[in-house]
Amino acid sequence: MKHLRVVDLSTWIAGAYCTKLLADAGAEVTKVESPPGDPLRRWSASGADIAPGESGALFDFLHASKRFAAVDDLDGLLASADVVVWSRDAPVSRTPGEILAAQPHLTVTAITPFGLSGPWADRAATEFTLQAWSGGIIGLARGAPELPPVCVGGQIGEWLSGAFAAIGTVASRRRAARSGEGELVDVSMLEALAMCLTYYPVTYHDQLGRPMRRRRYVPTPGVGTAKDGLVGLGVGTGQQWLDFAALVGHPEWGENPKYFLDRTELAPAIDAWIADRTVDEVLELASAFRIPNAPIADGANVATLDHFVERGTFVKNPIDGALNPDVPYRITTTPTPNSARKVADTATKRAENDPSLPFSGLRVLDMTAYWAGPFAGHVLAMLGAEVIHLESPSRPDGVRLVGGVPQTEDRYWERGPIFSALNTNKKSLTVDLADPRGVELLRRFVSTCDVVLENYTPRVLDQLGLSHESLREARPDLVMVRMPGFGLDGPWRERAAFAFVIEDASGLTALTGYPDQLPIEPYCVGDPNAGLHALFGMLVALARRDETGEGALVEAAMVDAAVNVAAEQVIEHSAYGALLTRSGNRGPRAAPQGLYEAAGDGPRTRDERWVAIAVADDAQWSALVGALGSPAWASDASLATSDGRVRAHDRIDELLGEWCRARSADEIVACLWDAGVPVARVMQPHDQPSLAQLEARAFFESVDHPVAGPARYSTLPMRFSRGPEHLHRRHAPLLGEHTAELLAEIGLTPSELDALEADGIIGCALAART
Prior knowledge:
Elements: E1 5-9, H1 13-24, E2 28-33, H2 57-63, E3 67-70, H3 74-80, E4 83-87, H4 96-102, E5 107-112, H5 127-134, H6 156-179, E6 183-188, H7 189-196, H8 201-208, E7 223-226, E8 229-233, H9 238-247, H10 267-275, H11 279-288, E9 293-295, H12 306-311, E10 314-316, E11 323-325, E12 330-334, H13 338-348, E13 363-367, H14 372-382, E14 386-391, H15 417-422, E15 427-430, H16 436-446, E16 451-454, H17 458-464, H18 468-472, E17 479-482, H19 499-506, H20 526-548, E18 551-555, H21 558-565, H22 567-576, E19 593-597, E20 610-614, H23 618-627, H24 642-647, H25 649-661, H26 665-674, E21 679-681, H27 692-696, E22 700-705, E23 709-714, E24 718-720, H28 739-744, H29 750-758
Parallel strand pairs: 1-2, 1-4, 2-3, 4-5, 5-6, 13-14, 13-16, 14-15, 16-17, 17-18
Antiparallel strand pairs: 6-24, 7-8, 8-9, 10-11, 12-18, 19-20, 20-21, 22-23
Helix pairs in contact: 1-6, 5-7, 6-7, 6-20, 14-20, 19-21, 20-21
C-alpha cells in the first residue's frame, strides 16, 4: 500500500487505529489537526500528567508512523490524496458528503457511533451506551446473576470500529482501482459491537425459536486464583470437558450429563484444585491434557511472559520509548518467477467475477472452522470474493453443530444457526484430508486459488504436507494466511486457542469485571477481532502482490490481534508505571457511568430493566441535571467538573438510581436522550432488529435456507455508497454442495467423483460416527 495517500481528519481511537493500520501497511498518512490538537494528545487512561508540548503515550502509539499538518493545508492535501478518514469531532466543518462532492476520486471513510444515516445518527452516545444498545453487555451471559451485568472493559468498540474502517477503506480502493471513482464508506460503531460482542443471536433465535442464553452465569472452569497469580482455564468442546474432569481428579463429573450445561456447583472444588498449584503448574498440567489455558495477562506482566518475549511481540515506540504491541500480522513475501505468473493469471480468471463488488475475481479457499477464520472469509464473501469453505464428511466445521439441534432431525448438520450466519455467499467443498488421495486433490485445487486461509494448529498442515512452500508448487503467487492461536513459533505454539483464552493472554480479561472480584472473560472479542486482523493482513499481502506479483505467507496469530486492541494497558504501565484495572461499569471517559435499574414494566426480567447512562463531559452533566428537574443534590457546584463527579460517583449512583427506579426504562431513555445525555436500554441481543437505527440502515437481511428455513442475518457495520445494496446473495452452502462442480475444474470425471464419494473422501452427508 506504499502508493496510498491518506488524510486523517479523525479524533480519538477508532480513526487513529484505522489510519495506523494503513500506515503500518505502507500508506502515507497525514494527520491534520486544528490548533488545540487532537484531544487524544492529552489522554492517559490512568490520569498521568502529560507535560505541555508533549503527547500521551497512546497518541504516540497510534500516530508514530504518520506525518502532521495544520488544517490550513487541507485543500492541497485532499487534492492529492486517495483516502480521507473522518469522525464527528474532525478539525474541519466539512461533512463527509461535502468532502466527497468536492473531490469525487476520494474514498471518504466516516466513523460515527450510529452511522451517518438513520433516526439515531445525531444522537448522543458513548462506548458504554453503545455496548448496551448492541446487546453485548448481556449477550453472552457475562457476570454473576446477583450483580448487574458488566460491560467489556477498555474502549473495545473504538478498536473494533477502527479495524472495520481500515478493511472497508482498502475494499473501496480496490474497487476504485478498476473504476477510478471514489465513494463514502459509512462505519457504525453500534453495528461493529453488535457483530463482535454477540454471537449471531438473531439468526439463532429465528432458526431455533429460543434465545442463545436464558440466564447469566460465571463460566466454570474460568478464571481462577493460583498460588502466585491468576490463570484462565476453559473447555470449548465435550471432549475437553471429559479431559478436564480427569485432569482435576473427578472423572465422574464427565459421566453426569447435567454438568455439560451447568457446572456452577463444581466451582468450589475447581477453585481449590487451582489454588493448590502455581500458575506454571496449572498451565503445564492443562497443556498436557490439551485443555485451553493461559495466564491472566495485564499491563504489568504481559510483556514479560516468555512466549511474547521469545516472539518479540512488544517493541519500543520510537517517540517515547514506551512498549507497544508490534504489527498484528507477519508477512513473508515469496518471489514468483515470470513464467509462473501466467499460470496464476489464468487460474485467477476462473473465479466468479462481478466488477461492481470490491473483491470480485478473488478466489479464496477457506480451510477454517468455528468463528475467527470463517469470519474473515465471510467479510470477503459478502464483498464479492468467491470463498470456498473446506470440510469433510467425517470432519465438518464444528460450528455446524452449535445450537443443540437433535441428531434425530433430518440433516441436523444443516440446521446450525451460527454456521448459517457465518457462511452465506460461500461454496462448500468436501475433501477428507485424512486420506492421501484427499490431500493430493486439495493440492491440485489450490492451483485455482488466490488465497488459502487456515486456522489449524501449526503442526497439522506440516504433517499433511500442505505447508506454504508445498502449496506454492501448485500456485506460485499464492497468498496463504495462517491463523494460529499463539503463532507459528514460541513456547505456546501448540496450545489450543479459543476466544476466552486469547482474551486471558492478551489483557482483555483483566479489564473486564468488578474490582473486588475475579476478572470475567469477555467470551466473544477474541474470535472476530482475530478474523478482522487476519483479513487486513491478507489485504496487505494482496496489495503487495498486485504491485510486485509476489505471493506471501501471512502469519496472523489470534493473540497478536488481541494484544493490539488491548494496547492501552501495556502502554500505560510502560510509560507511566500505571496498572489499569477493571472498574465494573465505570469509566474511563465518563462520570457518572453505570447501569441503573428501572421500574418493572410488563413481563421483562431484571436483566431487561437496566439502563446505561454515561456523562462524558460537563455539558452532558448540565443536560442531565436539567432532565432530572435540577434537584438540589445534582446542582452542587462540586459536581460541575469531571473530577468532582468522579469523587462523588457513589453518591451520584445512589441518587440517580432512586430517580431511575421510579420510572420505566423507556421513560428514562426518552427523557435523557432528548436532553442530549448518552443513554441506552440494556438490550437482549436477539432483540437487535427492534432498534429503529438498525432497521433504517437495513443491518439485517432475510435469507431463506433450504433446510433451516428463513431467518434474519446481520450484514456488515459499514455501508458503501457504491453498493452493494444487499450483502447476502445466497444462503450458507449445504455440506459438499459444490464439490462436484469445483473438482470438475481440475479435470475429475463423473465416474472419478462417484468413486471418491463411495470411499468417503468427498460427500454431501455427514459420515456416521462409530
